[in-house]
Predict the 3D structure of the following.
Amino acid sequence: MLTPVRKRSDYHHGDLGHAAIRAAKNLIDSEGLNSLGIRRVAEATGVSPAALYRHFENLEQLKAEVSAQIRLELGEFLKAKRDRTPLSRSKSRNALIRFEALGEAYIDYARKHPRLFEIAFIHCDEKPISEFGDLAWELLQESIKELDEVGLLDRKIAVAAPMIAWSSVHGLAVLVAQRAILQREQDQALRQIMDGVERALGAR
Amino acid sequence: MLTPVRKRSDYHHGDLGHAAIRAAKNLIDSEGLNSLGIRRVAEATGVSPAALYRHFENLEQLKAEVSAQIRLELGEFLKAKRDRTPLSRSKSRNALIRFEALGEAYIDYARKHPRLFEIAFIHCDEKPISEFGDLAWELLQESIKELDEVGLLDRKIAVAAPMIAWSSVHGLAVLVAQRAILQREQDQALRQIMDGVERALGAR
DNA sequence: TGTACATCAGTGAACGCGCGTTCACTGATGTAC
DNA sequence: TGTACATCAGTGAACGCGCGTTCACTGATGTAC
């Protein structure tokens, strides 16, 4: 009763669908996508492999669910970090601060969860990963709109701005996640890139 | 004698090491990294699985060799495409043309060989993928130096320039390779990104 | 130039393993009466 | 409120498969004499 792993009984799990996705996520986070398998997830959830087929058609579908879940969490991570950033009294300075917070958070997630990050955008469904990652993309759009409102966005580049910002930071994030760039060089690289993006957008 | 698949005899292959790397590369290109295996490569090379252990310690080492080979080919691809680009008579225009050619070639490779591109920078050795990819990185440095020489590089951003350019284009390349961006939007995205990079570097 | 022999690059069979998936089943749940 | 029973979420054993790697071996190569 103190720590009821199973909600209803020892026979029925009660929430196996969600538990499986959570377990799969942890598995990937610690051992990589190649370690993800029906049997491993079943073991981690304390359930027989066959049980998972009540909740997922096959391994591929489970993967897709996990991938979507990670995209969602990445978005929420970005949002949380941006909203936790201390603001100044200057409205225009704040737009820039919040913009930079998104970039930092993005790199931060890639560093903390490289394996999750790597598969966040992987094509596992047939769906074309709508809008690049839904929430994250919306946050970026929003932030660029804020820059525009305080006059920090060059009209000539407005349309291209989201793509430029996304691609620049995403490029670094991938390198960070792949450990292709040394830990101590990452912060410097991010500053350089945010500098470049802001120059491109006309914010400085 | 007309088409000697085996160089020396039917028993000894003659060049199994290189042939195996080539076969492995083709396998990845067409079926993805997960299809790469000792047995598959052996089959494709017309040799027994055990034979490969005369040339590679294990699967992991074969992977590493292939990865290095792909990085080399990517560099050569960039160089070839840059040098094939028609030039104008303006020296400063040429620096920009050659710079843009590198960006285009990078995306081009990612589009044509998404699976090869994906593993080009993957960490399979213990080596930290020296210099981001050796030849490709050198070509970028060289190109930025050319921009500098014709006065198209803002002094303030000179140090950061390679990182900015690399990260921006790499970000798009990854999205392209992952099919996370639609075919017909890719060209537009590249133009936007090169625009952004050139604004950042002070080239326009 | 001819031959004995060490060297080396192959063969082929076998090993143990973990995998995704299926199937007949069983035990708990919750609804109709 | 109590009971019969359909429904549903689990079990556990089994399937066939392809994998990386090892091992004793064999056949070709090339060198020393």
The two ends of chain B are 60 Å apart (CA to CA). Residues 1-7 of chain B have pLDDT under 50 and may be disordered. Chain B has two domains: 1-55, 66-201.
